[in-house]
Structures are given as C-alpha cells and as structure tokens.
Design brief:
There is one protein chain. By secondary structure, the protein is mostly beta strands. It folds into three domains: about 10-225, Beta Barrel (Porin); about 255-370, GMP Synthetase, Chain A, domain 3 (2-Layer Sandwich), CATH 3.30.300; about 375-645, Porin (Beta Barrel), CATH 2.40.160. About 10% of the residues lie in helices and about 45% in strands. The strands form three sheets. It has a 16-stranded antiparallel β-sheet that branches. A twelve-stranded antiparallel barrel has the order 1-2-3-4-5-6-7-9-10-11-12-13. Strand 25 (about 455-470) and strand 26 (about 470-480) form a beta hairpin. The longest helix has 15 residues, at about 295-310.
Length: about 650
C-alpha cells in the first residue's frame, strides 16, 4: 500500500521482498526533495508454464514515479501522487493519490484512492475506460492513455511507533486483490487486511515481516545510502601541514627547496608535473590520482608551497592537470591566506580571495619533470560482472581477475589496457541473442559474454591535447571496447567558468572477433563511420547535468540520446538515458527503444583513507541495436568537468583538509 511523504533528498535505496509466489527487487532514488523514482524487477507466479524453471512463472520490469504535492504541517497531511509501472506491459500498473498524517506523535494514518490494480476492489467510482495495452505492442512506451482511468478504489492504513526504538507496526486495508496475477499464480494473495512489522537497525539497514491472506508470511530487506553524507573519518590519511606565514629558511640563491617541494608532494600523494618561477609568482603543476576531490590536492599543494617557497614570491598558482595536460589554475595571494587560514571560516574566506580560471594551452618557460616520463603502472584486482533480465535466468555472474597496465609516455600520451579472465562464471550459459530487424551491433553480445578464457577488453593508445585555453582534443587508437576496435577522435569546448560545453566525436570502427584477442572481422550492415554532436549543461539545480547527443549510431540509425544525471560533489552519480532514432519500434524489437539507468558509487566515503576508486553499473532493461554507441574510455567531458569552477566551489570545504 502506498503512503505519502518522502525520503531524505538524495536517498538511494535497494529493497528485496518475498511473499507468497511473488519476489520484488527495487532500486529507488529520491531524485529531488519532492520527486522519487524507482525501478523494479519482479518474479511473479507459481504456475508451471512460461519461465517456471527460473523459479517464477514470469518476470516483469517496471518504473515508478511519485511527487509530493503537500508537506505535512500542523493542519495538513502529506499528500502524494504516484504512478506505478509507467512503461511497458503494465502488470503492476496503478496510479494513486494518497494522504498521510502523524497524530498523537506515534501514530500515522493513511488514506488514499487508487486506479489500475489498486482499484481491483473497494471500488468507489469510475473515471472511464482503462486501456490495457497503452504501453505498446512491444512494451517500453509510456502508458499515458491509461493514467487515472478506470475504476477508483479506496485503501488505508495505520502505522504505530512502538516504545522499542526502531520498531513499528503496520495495518493496511488493501485495494489490490492480486487478480492481475491470477494468470501466473495458483495461490495468489486475496486478503483485504494485511499486517506488518518493520525494524530499523540503523540509518542504512532495516527489515520487515508481513502477514497476508491468513496464511502467507513475507519478508523484506531494505538497504539505504545517501550521497550527501560525508562518510568515514580518514584516520589512515596523514595530517596535512599547516599553512606557513613564514617559510623555512633557505640559503641565498639556493634552489634546493624545489627538491623539498617535490619530496613533500610525493609524501602527500600529489604528483609533481612541473613548475614555473617568475618575479612575484610561484606556479606549480600537479596531477591528482589520490584525493577524492581535486580541491583537496590543491589545498595540500598550497600548504607545501607556503613551507618552502621564498617569501618574496607573493602569489601562488596551482595548475591542475590530467595526464600532464593543464586544465585549470587556482591563484591566491600568499599574505592574505596566511591571515585567515586558521580562522573558523577559513574555507569561506579563502574562496572570496581565490581566482579559478582555465589553464593556458601552453605554459611557456615552465620546467616539466622529465624524470616522471615514461610513467609505468599496473593494477591486478578482482572483478565482478552481472548480466540481468533474461527471464529464463534473471541473473548471470562472472567473477575473475583483471589487470590494467598503463604507460604515460609523455604529457598527454598514454597507452592503457584491460585484460581479464574468468574464475567463476555463468556467462557461458547466456543464450538470449538477436532481436528486432536492425544489424546486430549489440544484441549478439552473447557471443562475447560466453567467453571465459583470458580476453582483451581494451588496448588503446590515447593522445590528449589542448587546441586553446578552453578547447580540448582526444585521439584514441586500438581495441576500444570488447566488441569494437578502431579510431575515435573528439573535440570539446569547455570553459572552466561556463555551465555549457560542446563536443564533437567521430569514430571509424571495425567489429572484433568474439574471442576478444587481436582479430577483427566484418559485420554486414555495421555503420563503421559514426559519431555525434554533443551539448552538455551543468544546470546548477541540485547538481543535475543534462546531455544531448545527436548523430549516427552503430546500426546506421540516426537520432539523439538524452542523458540526465545527478552528479554529487563527493563523486556519486545517479542518472538515466534514452535514445530515439529513425529506427521504428518494430525495428528495435522488444522494448521499442533504448533506455537505461546508471550509477557510480565512490568507495571514498567508506574507506579510512582517500581514494578515487568507484563502482559503476549501467542497467539496461532490454538490450537493443537501435541507439547503440561505441564505448570509448576517457571521453573528454567526464574528465574536464571535474575541474570546472562550479565543481571546485562545491567541494571547497575540502581545500584545507
């Protein structure tokens, strides 16, 4: 039963519940203070047909959205309107308007009206004919023709917070008689009155028990995280140096302090790239591969400069670079900072006297540390991959070892790769393949996933460069991803202090052999030349970024992709995308068009030391050939945007940490 109200802004949740012949797995996100969205994957039924061998008769994907209209106050309740299963087959399709109010401090009452499956009993009115096929013959379309149509049912409930901390009791009068599941379930739930018990272990974990139909006991596990939380104290991280009002004494005309700066930067896990000394300014070029925010690496560098640079240098400038390519620069007046650095609001005061600008295309007369090149590194780590939504087997997994060598040959030129091999895997059992009428540029991915032997996921020579102070270029050559190899060229116009960026990418690719070693082969119908014009917009609204890509895709279809993501200052990303092209829904096949949700979870909040590592996942309800692009590692916008003026200001409290 729905209730009104919302979670905390930014809350990301996962829940899994089992009752009777039904399993529901849900990912939810409080996208805005009043807007909540969810993706659900459900196993339904116990009839011995269809996909019964998977454990359930059928499997269903659904998207929900809800909007809080009114927040509870002394006189008014929370009021929420919601849409369940808004896209596709509509097995869970329902709409509702619900009000909830806390009374007597520990009791919360709910009453609401529902449509769709929330009006399969307790019918109080009717709002017209409900179209049962409004999600399209192939699914994947918005069910707008059925929203708030048909019978209207009434539901309600009570929640009581017990004297035991974290424990509450629930009672509901349901308007869902589960008749929608009758075709799949022999013993579907029919009870009007249901009971529940919820116990909150902490802010991140809770569990629930339900009793329904006089015979069924259900269980639910809820996991919650909020990207706005700072995370753990970094007790394994070295305490930074103070900001020195007067540097350590140096011998006259002795540049030995430059060696001290380099050693101190290395101790603080900041990469020294080079420097430039002028009459009044000391300019330091760094690269950050350790701290979760680039702001913190700049702060550490400023402290070190204050310790060693002679007092006659009155201005410090720290240039942040990526693989040796300068992107932005932070400039401060040394004396002003020394006056305020120990004040309670030092971060705010420093922000007011700091200039953040795009770095110059070329830093004339700068000394570049030639000893750093070539820089060779490698990591050997475990990996885990998952393949979802095959109704014959909803989850496949692949666990193994991967190695990721990198050779930075000179500033901006890097050779990198990723080679992996499976240890424990069910990927070789994946059978679902091609669908629709387009060239199988993605739906034959099964042939690649079936491989368990050591394989080259990518092997690329990439050149990054600047065409002007605000214009960047990238050229990549090699095995770009598991299915395609070739050339990829990109140009990005991205001023540091602008919310808008523009890009162009052109690719010339060839299909790889499914064994994923060095062989290439032909794929009839592949659009080997493809690419996009892109516009990127940092909206400044709750950290949301929007992206529009227009161009030609791998299967030769033409159209656009819209991406919307919330990019939290501490590295979390949560978003979604969809593509619409000139390929028809029938050409695409089941699902009608390409759509996906994705997230990136940084490990830094849970580690006792600084880290830039993260877990990334892209979830496509249905894989298709329409709207398919090449996956090119190291695209420019994701790199450059981390150094934007807005991002630096949002992470400014990290400056002196």
């Amino acid at each position: 039963m729905p209730t009104a109200g919302s979670f905390n802004d930014g809350d990301l949740s996962f829940s899994s519940s089992k009752i009777g012949p039904n399993l529901r797995n849900t990912i939810g996100f409080q996208a805005l203070p009043r807007v909540y969205g969810a993706f659900r994957y459900s196993g339904i039924g116990d009839r011995e047909k269809m996909y019964y061998r998977s454990g359930y008769t059928t499997w269903d994907r659904s998207f929900d959205i809800r909007l809080d209209l009114i927040r509870q106050n002394k006189w008014l309740p929370d009021i929420t309107v919601g849409l369940q299963d808004t896209i596709g087959t509509g097995l869970h399709s329902a709409e509702y308007l619900v009000a909830s109010k806390t009374v007597l401090k520990k009791l919360r009452a709910t009453i609401g009206l529902g449509w769709g499956r929330l009006a399969s009993r307790n019918v109080v009115s009717n709002t017209g004919i409900r179209n049962g096929n409004s999600g399209g013959d192939l699914g994947g379309l918005l069910r707008t023709a059925s929203f708030f149509r048909g019978n209207t049912g009434a539901f309600g409930g009570l929640e009581y917070d017990t004297p035991i901390d974290g424990l509450n009791l629930k009672l509901e009068l349901s308007s869902d008689d589960y008749s929608y599941d009758q075709a799949y379930s022999k013993n579907y739930l029919t009870s009007l009155t249901n009971y529940g018990l919820n116990y909150k272990l902490n802010n991140n974990l809770s569990t629930s028990v339900y009793y329904s139909s006089g015979r069924e006991i259900g269980f639910q596990l809820n996991i919650m995280a909020n990207p706005n939380n700072e995370g753990t104290f970094k007790f394994l991280e070295d305490v930074p140096e103070p900001f020195y009002s007067i540097p350590l004494p140096q011998k006259d005309n002795d540049n030995g302090y430059l060696i001290d700066i380099k050693k101190e930067l290395e101790k603080n896990n900041v990469i020294y790239v080079g420097h430039k000394i002028s009459d009044l300014e000391f300019l330091l070029i760094i690269d950050n591969g350790h701290y979760s925010t680039h702001t913190q690496s700049v702060g550490r560098s400023l402290r070190i400069l204050s310790k060693y640079v002679p007092i006659d240098k009155t201005q410090f400038t720290v240039v942040s670079s990526h693989l040796g390519i300068p992107i932005n620069q932070v400039s401060i007046e040394r004396e002003k900072v020394s006056y305020i650095v120990d004040s309670p609001n030092a971060e705010l005061l420093t922000k007011k006297i700091t200039n953040i600008n795009s770095a110059s295309k070329v830093l004339n007369d700068a000394y570049i540390d030639s000893e750093y090149y070539p820089s060779i590194s490698n990591s050997i780590t475990p990996y885990a991959r998952y393949h979802f939504f095959d109704p014959n087997r909803p989850l496949y997994w692949d666990i193994g070892i991967e190695t990721s060598p990198k050779i930075l040959l000179k500033p901006g030129l890097i050779f990198s790769g990723n080679i992996s091999g499976s240890l424990i895997s069910t990927f070789d059992e994946i059978q679902r393949g091609a669908k629709g009428r387009l060239t199988t540029v993605r739906t034959n991915q099964r042939d690649f996933l079936n491989v368990r032997d050591p394989r080259i996921n990518n092997l690329i020579l990439t050149s990054y460069y600047k065409l002007s102070n605000n214009t960047y270029g990238r050229f990549s050559l090699g095995y770009l991803e598991e299915m395609y190899g070739g050339l990829s060229a990109e140009v990005l116009k991205s001023p540091i202090n602008s919310s808008l960026s523009y890009g162009l990418e052109i690719n010339k690719v060839k299909y790889r052999d499914s064994r994923q070693l060095l062989d290439l082969r032909d794929l009839n119908g592949l659009s080997s030349t493809n690419g996009h014009l892109s516009t990127y917009w940092d909206t400044g609204f709750y950290d949301y970024h929007a992206q529009l890509d227009l161009g030609k895709y791998l299967a030769g279809d033409k159209g656009g992709t819209i991406t919307l993501k919330r990019d939290f200052p501490n590295g979390w990303e949560i978003g979604g995308l969809f593509s619409l092209t000139d390929a028809s829904f029938a050409d695409f096949g089941e699902g009608s068009f390409d759509k996906a949700i994705f997230f990136k979870i940084p490990l830094n909040p849970i580690l006792p030391y600084e880290s830039r590592s993260s877990i990334k996942e892209l979830i496509r309800p249905l894989n298709g050939d329409g709207g398919a692009r090449v996956f090119v590692p190291g695209r420019l916008y994701n790199i450059v945007n981390e150094y934007s003026q807005r991002n630096f200001y949002e992470t400014w409290p990290k400056l002196w940490q």
